[in-house]
Amino acid sequence: MSKPITAIIVGAGHRAETYASFSKHCPDKLKIVGVADPNELRRKMIAQKYNLAENQCFESAEELASKGKLADAIINGTMDTQHVPTSLVLLKAGYDILLEKPFAISEEQVWQLADTVKKYNRKVMICHVLRYAPFYVEIKKHILNGELGEIISIQTAEHVSYHHMACCFVRGKWNRQDICGSSILMSKCCHDLDIIMWINSGINPTKVSSFGGLHYFRKEHAPKDSGEYCLIDCPIEKDCLYSARKHYLDHPDRWSFYVWTGIEHIENPTLKDKEEYLKRKDHLYGRCVWKCDNTVADRQAVMIEFENGSIATHNLIGGASRPMRKIHIVGTEGEIQGIMDDSVYTIRHIDTRPGHEYKEIVHDLKIRGDMTGAFGGHGGGDLRLVEDFVNVLQGHKPSISCTSLEDSINGHLVGLLADRAMTENKIMYFDGSNQLS
Ligand SMILES: NC(=O)c1ccc[n+]([C@@H]2O[C@H](COP(=O)([O-])OP(=O)(O)OC[C@H]3O[C@@H](n4cnc5c(N)ncnc54)[C@H](O)[C@@H]3O)[C@@H](O)[C@H]2O)c1
User: Fold this and answer.
1) CA 185 to ligand 1 centroid distance, Å
2) Which end of the chain has less Cβ packing within 10 Å, N or C?
3) CA distance 259 to 216
4) What is the largest CA-CA distance in the chain?
5) What span, in angstroms and rounded, lies between the C-alpha atoms of 96 and 381?
6) What are the Cα distances from residue 307, in Å, to 82, 112, 203, 286?
7) What number does the ligand 1 atom closest to the CA of 381 have?
8) Residues 33 and 158 in one domain
9) What total number of domains does the chain contain?
């Protein structure tokens, strides 16, 4: 049996911790041997959880890199703007990296990272967790079997729920591209664009266009008489669908890893602690959703054409009642339509028999029991991704979901170009300079 892969957490936030927890489920496969984070509290929490000594804790990726190579790999869960700068020094120091998405915030950064990976011959896998969700894996298998014939069209949609939208993209830390580095398309839907590229694997996109913007979560839509802060000065809070009390106190576990980061130092904070915190004006999550400093879009449509004439669309809709990811792939001989959140998809084939038009089979993954157990997050994707990363480093065959950096480039470029298409009101063309050769 191979020895466990040793890994150091860089950026000890919610995401890196989720991936690192794989070592608790499978200690024979992954061992956490260090942490790097400027946040002392988080360093200490990780050190305690993984039994790390002081000399295994570092204040930054840069400090860690200056010590040479101390483990097989890095789990890089820093924020979007830091993915490339932290990875460059760690690649140079000799590490392979499991890297969060979006792995870059500009086309220049995409190529900077790709060139460095090539130069040092390292393995970098991107956390496109949806590729590992059984729902998408099963769909990909039908595509690989050629069951749909030649793909004509791929339609995807992500409906971001009202509470997710408000927490992350209106009040929270992905609400301004000039600060967090990413547009909402890149931070939320680089997964869906990646799924489109994966379904059409090996076929390069040629054109991208996009429409959308920020329309609803703006000052002019604020209800009459509303205040600036839900729990301080808002007389209509009780009737408001976006009340911070309703979103975060009535559902204290919902988005807790974002909303309560400022009171991480309090062990098991009470509801009272949380209410007091929401009443602070320097706390992001108590703000009226129509009076925040958000600039990212709340809706966006993307259209893509590929070199073989196939087409794809993705719709991002912020503020939906129900969170949902949908996919509909149509090929020359059949189609697949499904909703990830239901774990159900239907496959249809042409049926020319008299009295028939098509035949269909409904696949319910819940009935098959594929969605349960320790591998639950992101439709089952989170920890399966870590397992694949470990397998690849141990020299085993990668799974069909494997998301090497090279494999993730087109999806990221499509997202970055779509944002330019939307803001510059243009069609963007892929050419030799922005296409993976
Ligand atoms: N794959 C997914 O589906 C998914 C879902 C949510 C978020 N994400 C991505 O995960 C990433 C992390 O999100 P999060 O909410 O866990 O972030 P976070 O802000 O909770 O954690 C980031 C950590 O990085 C640390 N850090 C900052 N500079 C550093 C440096 N130079 N060296 C080492 N550490 C440093 C910060 O102190 C912080 O603790 C983001 O890029 C986000 O877009 C991915």
Assistant:
1) 18
2) C
3) 22
4) 75
5) 21
6) 33, 25, 7, 48
7) 3
8) no
9) 3
